[in-house]
Design goal:
Shape: elongated
Largest sheet: 6 strands, parallel
Order of helices and strands: HEEEHEHEHEEEHEEEHEEHEHEHHEH
Strand order of the largest sheet: 13-12-11-14-15-16
CATH class of the largest domain: Alpha Beta
Radius of gyration: 24 Å
C-alpha cells in the first residue's frame, strides 16, 4: 500500500514538471517470484523513481524497455523466464525458478493514477482492469483500461463487447489475478486488480510507547487514528504521523471513529478501568482485531471482571482478542514491542501464522 501511495505522489510531481512517465506492473507469475502480481515500479525521465518489481535484478532492464515504450508511445509486455539453471549465469541472474510477466506502459489514456489516488484518499475500494493481449479476431489495444469504483466506470476500451464482458468480470469478488475473458470473436487476457484503501488502525492511548506504533503503521501506509482522553498527550506535536487524533473518553470517542470489519484496534492506555471499558465496547463491534497491551494475568482479570458485570465476551469475540498483544520475538523496549505488534497485525490481515519462513512448506508467495 505504501508503494502505491509513493507512486501516486511521484506521478503527480512528474506531471507537474512535464516529465515523461512509464509504469511497469507485474501482471502474472508462474513459479517463484520476489513480488506478486500488482507490484509496480515507476520510471520518470528514464530513471527508476519509486516502487519495485523484483529484488533489484530486473529493474535496470525494465528501465531500458520503458524508455522504448515512452519513445514509441506503445505499451510492451516483457516476460522474464528464470526457470533454467543457466539463467543464473547467462540470464538476469534471479535464480528464483519462476516466469515473471511485466506490462510496461507510458502513462496515458484513462487516468489509472488519479483513480488510485481517489481510492486511497477517500478510502473506498476500486477495481482496475487492463488488457494485456488479445486472441482471435478481437481488436483492442494493449494497455486499454476499465476502472470501476462505487458503481462508476471509466474506460478507454473501444471494443464494446469486450468492454461489457470486462465490466461484468470486475464486479465479481476475487483477488488480483490475470483472467482470460472470452467474447464472440476471440478473447482478451486481462489483468484485474483490486485497489484497497489503506488499512485502518485505531490506537487507544497516547503514551510514549504508542509513538513507534503510529510511526511504523504509517511506514506501512496504514491510516492511523490516535485516541486518548488527555488533550496534552494526544497532540500533533507528539504524533505528527497520525492521520487523525480524537480526544475523549471511550464513551465519547468510540462513536466518532469507524468500527468495521477492516479495522484493527490496539488498546494501550495503561489504565485498567479504561482498558476494560474499551475491551467491553470493542469486542461486540465488527472490528477484525483487538489487541490489548499487558501481561496475561491482567487480561484474565479484565475478562473475569467483565463476566462479573454480566458482559462476558462470546467465544467468537474472544477469537478476535489478541492479548498479550504481539508476536513472541523477544521484544524489549517500545520500538521492539511496536514491531512485534505490527507484525502480528500483518499476520492476521494476510492470514499467515507468523512463524519462520524456513519452516514454511508452501511457496512464500501463494499466487
Amino acid at each position: 500500500m505504501k508503494e502505491l501511495q509513493r507512486i501516486v505522489s511521484e506521478v503527480e510531481r512528474a506531471r507537474a514538471e512535464g516529465k515523461s512517465i512509464a509504469l511497469a506492473t507485474v501482471v502474472a507469475i508462474d513459479g517463484s517470484s520476489y513480488r506478486l502480481p500488482g507490484a509496480r515500479m515507476l520510471i520518470v525521465d528514464g530513471k527508476w523513481t519509486a516502487g519495485s518489481i523484483s529484488g533489484g535484478c530486473l529493474e535496470d532492464d525494465v528501465v531500458l524497455r520503458a524508455q522504448e515504450a515512452v519513445a514509441t508511445n506503445t505499451p510492451k509486455l516483457a516476460v522474464y523466464d528464470t526457470t533454467s539453471d543457466e539463467d543464473i549465469v547467462f540470464g538476469v541472474g534471479l535464480g528464483c525458478k519462476g516466469i515473471i510477466t511485466i506490462l510496461i506502459e507510458p502513462l496515458g489514456g484513462v487516468d489509472f493514477i488519479g483513480f488510485a489516488k481517489r481510492c486511497l484518499d477517500e478510502r473506498t475500494p476500486g477495481t482496475a482492469a487492463i488488457v494485456v493481449r488479445t486472441e482471435g479476431k478481437v481488436s483492442e489495444k494493449v494497455g486499454a483500461r476499465l476502472l470501476s469504483r462505487d458503481g462508476e466506470v471509466q474506460s478507454d476500451i473501444e471494443n464494446a463487447a469486450l468492454k461489457a464482458a470486462i465490466a461484468s468480470a470486475v464486479q465479481e469478488d476475487g483477488a488480483t489475478s490475470m483472467r482470460r475473458i472470452a467474447v464472440a470473436d476471440g478473447a482478451a487476457v486481462v489483468f484485474i486488480e483490486c485497489i484497497d484503501p489503506p488499512t485502518p488502525l485505531l490506537v487507544f492511548g497516547a503514551g510514549h510507547d504508542a509513538m513507534p506504533v503510529v510511526r511504523l503503521a504509517k511506514d506501512l501506509g496504514w491510516h492511523v487514528t490516535l485516541v486518548d482522553h488527555r488533550p496534552a498527550y494526544a497532540t500533533t506535536e507528539r504524533f505528527p504521523q497520525a492521520d487523525r487524533i480524537v480526544v475523549g473518553s471511550p464513551a465519547e470517542s468510540l462513536p466518532r471513529v469507524t468500527l468495521d470489519s477492516d479495522t484493527l484496534a490496539l488498546v494501550m492506555t495503561h489504565n485498567y478501568l479504561r482498558d476494560m471499558e474499551l475491551v467491553q465496547r470493542l469486542l461486540p463491534s465488527p472490528v477484525r482485531y483487538v489487541g490489548l497491551l499487558g501481561p496475561r494475568k491482567r487480561t484474565d482479570q479484565i475478562l473475569a471482571d467483565l463476566k462479573d458485570k454480566g458482559s462476558a465476551p462470546e467465544n467468537e469475540q474472544l477469537a478476535r482478542l489478541y492479548a498479550p498483544v504481539g508476536l513472541d520475538i523477544g521484544s524489549e523496549g517500545p520500538a521492539e514491542v511496536a514491531m512485534s505488534i505490527l507484525s502480528e497485525m500483518q499476520a492476521v490481515i494476510t492470514q499467515h501464522g507468523g512463524g519462520h519462513l524456513r519452516e514454511r512448506k508452501k511457496p512464500i508467495h501463494q499466487a
